[in-house]
Amino acid sequence: MATPAAGRSGDGHASGRPTRVPALLAHRSADWSQRLPSGSLKLAVVVALLVAIMVAAGGESGHATAAMVEGPRYVGTSALQSAIIACFALVFVNPSIGAAVAAVSCLGVAAVPAANTGAPGIWAAAGGALLVLAVADGVTRARQRAVGRVWRLSSEAVVLVPEVPEPLRAHLVRPRVTRLAGATACLAVGVAGLAVFAHDARAAEDFRSDSLVTTTTVDAVTAGASGVHVTIDDTSYLVPLPSSDAEVGQHMEVRYQPRTHRAEATMDVFDPTYALIPGVGGLLVGTVWFAAVRRRRREMVALLIDGGPAFQVRATWSPRSNGALLTPFDDVTRTFATAPRLASWWGAETDEQWPDDVNETDDRDSFDEIPAVRVASLSDAELLEMARSLADSDADDGPSSASVPTMMTWDHAPVVVVGLDHDTAPAALLDADGRWYVTETALTPPRWRRPRRAAAPVDPHANDRSAWRIFSDHRQSVLLRFARRTGRWLPWVALPVEGWVLAWLFDDAPAIRVVSTIIAMPVAGWTWSVLGQVRLDVGSRWLRLRGRLVDELVAWPRVTSVVSDDTSLVIRLDTDNDSDGDAILLPVAADSLPLTRGSGDPRDVAARVEKARVAGSSAVPPRVQRLPSVPLLAGLCWLVVALVATQL
Q: If we measure between CA atoms, which residue out of 133, 144, 148, 175 comes closest to residue 292?
C-alpha cells in the first residue's frame, strides 16, 4: 500500500492505511502555509504596473529625435519597459519571478530616465512597493521550504512513496506538449523581435548617415493621420508620424533619401525599439515557462521515486477548484492548500493482473530511466481502459478528476497527503480504500489568505444553471456544430473573402493592428479546419491517422489487430521491437472529433478497419509516411492571403 522511501514493493492498490502516519494539526499547517498569497501578489503587480504606465503615459512626452533614439540610454530604458510589459504575462507563469522582474525593471527605469519613460517618480514608487512584496514573497517561500525540510528530516517523520502503476507513472512524468509548444513559441517570438530590432536599427542608421535634410510643406494627411505626403524636388514622399500630428500647409523639416525614397520627420523619427517589446518579452516569458515545465517534471519524479513526509489531513471535493480542498485534521474550517487535477488509475485491481515488468521493485533515481509501459505486455482490456482514462497523445490532459467518482464524494474525508515540501510542488493523496491520487500540477495555496470553510461537495449533475449559462452553452454548441459541418470545405472557400476584407482593414491601419491580424489569421483558419476533420481515414492501402499538424499514413501490413467497446477503439501496430509493440488509443467522448466520416461508433469503425486490414494485408506502400495535415495547409493558406493583403 505504501512503503518508506528506502524501498518500494507491492502494488498501488493496497487496502490499508499506515497506522503510524501523524495527523497534521492546525498550528503545524499554519506554520507551513504562511506564504504571501499568490492572488494578492498577482493583483498587486498588475495594478502597480497599470497605474505606473497610465501616469507615465499621461505626462509630458517629447517627440523622439535621431540622437535620442540611437543613444544607449534610450535603448536600455526601452528594454526595461519591454520587460515591464512582459511582467503582465510573467506574473501568471511564475508570480515570484514576475514580481521580482517588475520591481527591478521599474527601479531601473526610475534610476536611468530617458525621453520615453515619463516621470521617474511614479516608476520609483511602483518599483519600491513591488520590491517590498518580492522580498516578502522570497522570505516566506524560503521559510516554507525550511519547514518542509524540517518535517522530512525529523526523527518522527514518516516518509511514504506513492505507489502507482507504470502507465500512470509514465503519464505523470511525460512532458506536456502544449506547455513546451507555448514556451517554444515565446522564445521564437523573442528571437524574431530582437532580430527585427537589430535589422531596423541598422537600416535606420544607414538611412540617416546618407540622407538629406530640407524644410517642406505638408501636401496631404493620410486617412489614419499616421503620416503626411510632401513634395521634394518634384517627387512625392510619404513621411510617417509615429507620435505627432500635422495639418495641410504646415512647414516641416524632413530627412529624406532620393535613392531609397524613404523619408522621416526630423522631430518624430522612426523608433526601432518597439520591436524590443516582443523580443525581450518573448525571451523572458519563454525562458521562465521552460524552467517551470522542467521543474514540474523534476519535482514529479522526485515525488514518485523519493516520496515525501506523510500527514493525515481531511479532504473535501470542490467542483469549482476541480480538486480537493485540504484542511488540518483537527480544523475543517480553514483550507491550507488545494490538490488540483487528481489523477488515478482505474484499470487492473490486483497485482496479478499487472505484467511482471510493471510490478518489479524499482530503485531508479533519475526520471530519464523511467520507461513507458510496454504495449505488447498489456491485454486488450487494459488498453481499452487506458483509452478511456487517457486522452490521445496530442492532448495535454490525462486521466481527469471528472472521470473518477470516488473523490467527488469526499466531504471532510480523512486522507494521507504526501509531498508537502512546498506549495509549488506536486503531492499525492491516499484515501481510506488504499487508492493513490497524484496531482498533475502543483498544489494551489489559498489565494487571498482568509478563512475558507470547506463546503460539502456539489453534485456535478445538478441542474442549477442560470439563464445566461444556458444561453452561453447553447450559443457555443451552435457555433461548434457550424464549425464541424463546414470546417472541411468552407475555410478554403473563404480565402477570397478573407483577402478582400483584410485589404480593406489594412488600408492606413497601424502596424500593430496589421501584425496582430496576420498572426491571428492562420490560427483562425487552422482551428476552423481542425473542427471539420475526422480522426481516421480508411483507405485501400493504408490507414490515415489525421493529426493537427501532421497526418500519418500507416500501411495495412503494420496493423496487427483491432479491438473496441462502446466508448473506445484500440488499433495495435507492430514495431521494430516486437516485444514493445505500439497502439493507437482512440477514446470517444461527446466533444471529441468523429472517428470517421461514415460512422462514429467504435464497433462499426473497428469492423470497417478490420475488413480493410484483411483486404490490404498484401499492400506494399511505405510502412509509414507522414504528410502535412489539412488544417496545417489551411492555416498556411490563410497566412499567405493575409500577407498578400498587406500589399494590395
A: 175
DSSP state of 350: S
Cα–Cα distance, 475 to 494 (Å, whole number): 22
- What DSSP letter does each residue of 302-329 carry, written as one string? HHHHH-EEEEEEEEEEETTTTEEEEE-T
Beta bridge partners of 203: none
* pLDDT score at 473: 65
Place of cell 473506445: 568
pLDDT of residue 18: 52
Q: Are the C-beta atoms of 564 and 610 separated by less than 8 Å?
A: no
Exposure string (b/e) for 270-288, b if CB count within 10 Å is 16 or more?
bbbbbbbbbbbbbbbbbbb
| C-alpha separations of 282 from 105, 184, 191, 427 in Å | 16, 9, 8, 31
In order along the chain (648 residues), what is the average pLDDT of each group of 10 residues? 39 46 86 82 92 78 74 87 93 92 92 70 91 92 87 84 82 82 91 92 88 89 82 88 84 89 87 89 93 89 88 85 85 83 59 36 34 58 72 39 57 88 85 86 70 44 53 72 87 91 81 82 90 87 86 85 85 63 75 78 87 78 76 92 86
Q: Which amino acid is at 644?
A: V
Residue type at position 55: V
β-strands 342-343, 436-439 pairing:
antiparallel
**Any alpha helices (H) in 332-405, and if so which ranges?**
356-359, 380-389
The domain spans of the chain are 28-155, 174-306, 467-531
- Report the amino acid identity of residue 512: I
* Chain Cα centroid distance, residue 56: 32
pLDDT the model gives residue 144: 86
If we measure between CA atoms, which residue out of 91, 288, 290, 340 comes closest to residue 176? 290
Question: Counting beta carbons within 10 angstroms of the beta carbon of residue 247, is it exposed (0 to 12), middle (13 to 18) or buried (19 or more)?
Answer: exposed
Among 250, 302, 275, which residue's Cα sits nearest to residue 190?
Answer: 275
Which CATH number is correct for 174-306, 3.30.70.3280, 2.40.50.140, 3.60.21.10, 3.40.50.2000? Answer: 2.40.50.140
Other residues' Cβ atoms within 10 Å of the Cβ of residue 371: 14
Q: How many CA atoms lie within 13 A of 579 on its CB side?
A: 2
Query: Using the 8-state DSSP alphabet, how is residue 65 labeled?
Result: -
Q: Three-state SS string across 411-474, please?
A: CCEEEEEECCCCCCCCCEEECCCCCEEEECCCCECCCCCCCCCCCCCCCCCCCCCCHHHHHHHH
